[in-house]
From TrEMBL:
Domain of life: Bacteria
Keywords (A to Z) from UniProt: Signal
Similarity comment: Belongs to the phosphate/phosphite/phosphonate binding protein family.
Protein name, entry field: Phosphonate ABC transporter phosphate-binding protein periplasmic component
Length: 345
């Protein structure tokens, strides 16, 4: 099972990348972007294609949101926005469920995905390798919605400080996750705690699985996104009083929303209009921690802290980095499938 999943995912990635060199053009600057893309205005995201023949104007727009938690929850949560997007663009909008960060990056790169929300960490892969253009983050009239890395343990645990994590089993989420892996690796050493050296790292796959794993006693502690923790508490999935927060980081931007760089400029204008004219319903606002709109951002400015964390941890938003991410995603999928099969028997 593991070999089959890994082979399929890696083959898909290889096929997507194989034609890149042939598509390179007379680009004056591409920075760190893949050779498929150009960045002559130096905004760190892919420019619209120079040849109008390369602009895409699909009849049906495909939208998705990052696979942070239960995908079904977010398919329903974005239903009202999808209706608004359809009304503004005049196109049918469908939701495409993805189950891994690598799969979402491949979908935007291959053209199967047109508009998407990417988690904070994987946004860099989507920009550099997928031609993704982030334009918004959930927020309010005053600012974008942020979140923190929090380190949690059970309240009845004898772990009371970060130093107490030495020698323990700590759940990180996935290799590409900002708050679930990259930020802890960049920030914890200053606290005298180096992941994989001072404590054992075990990848859970997702933030909610780390949280539930800590609660169940599968892990001693976990670094997770504060917004996911808060949403789970608000939804009644956990009782926040059952946990102790050991550490809170500086504020990071939440998931980025944007579009594929090669969509027709007229369509892009309507997509921008749809995002920035939409106002969340009371239910949607409650789901997303009080945000009531999409707040404008740029990858160059608002993702600088995230890129700095990635660089500090040796993470490169490259093909090799995505390949490694795909391998880890496939391994986790195989492990989950094996665990489910064992439980069924």
């Amino acid at each position: 099972m593991q070999k089959t999943l890994l082979t399929t995912l890696l083959l898909s990635t290889s096929l997507l990348f194989s034609a890149s060199a042939a598509l390179a053009d007379d680009c004056g600057n591409r920075g760190v972007l893949d050779e498929k893309f150009c960045d002559e205005n130096n905004d760190m995201v892919a420019d619209s294609p120079k040849d109008p023949a390369d602009w895409r104007d699909p009849n049906t727009l495909v939208f998705t949101y990052t696979p942070v938690e239960d995908p079904a929850v977010y398919k329903d949560a974005f239903f009202e926005f999808q209706q608004h997007l359809s009304a503004v663009t005049g196109k049918k909008v469908v939701y495409y469920t993805v189950h891994s960060n690598a799969a979402e990056v491949e979908a935007i790169r291959s053209g199967r995905l047109h508009i998407a929300g990417f988690s904070t960490g994987p946004t860099g892969y989507a920009v550099n390798l997928g031609g993704y253009v982030p334009i918004a983050v959930k927020g309010t009239v005053d600012s974008f919605q942020g979140y923190n890395l929090i380190a949690i343990t059970r309240k009845d645990s004898d772990i009371r400080t970060m130093a107490d994590l030495k020698g323990k089993m700590v759940a990180h989420t996935s290799a590409s996750s900002n708050s679930g892996n990259l930020a802890p690796r960049a920030l914890f050493p200053a606290l005298g705690l180096t992941p994989d050296v001072d404590y054992t790292v075990k990848y859970s796959g997702k933030h909610d699985q780390s949280i539930m794993g800590v609660l169940a006693g599968d892990y001693d502690a976990a670094p997770v996104a504060s917004d996911v923790f808060s949403r789970m508490a608000s939804a009644g999935r956990i009782n926040a009083d059952d946990f102790r927060i050991l550490y809170t980081s500086p504020r990071f931007p939440t998931s980025a929303f944007g579009y594929a760089h090669d969509l027709h400029p007229d369509l892009v204008a309507k997509i921008n209009e749809a995002f920035f004219s939409f106002r969340f319903s009371a239910k949607m606002s409650e789901t997303f921690g009080g945000a009531d709109r999409f707040y404008p951002v740029t990858f160059k400015d608002d993702w600088k802290v995230i890129r700095d964390i990635a660089h500090a941890t040796g993470t490169a938003y490259t093909k090799q980095g995505l390949k490694q991410l795909a391998e880890k995603d496939a391994a986790k999928a195989a492990k989950s499938a094996a665990a489910a099969a064992a439980k069924a028997n």
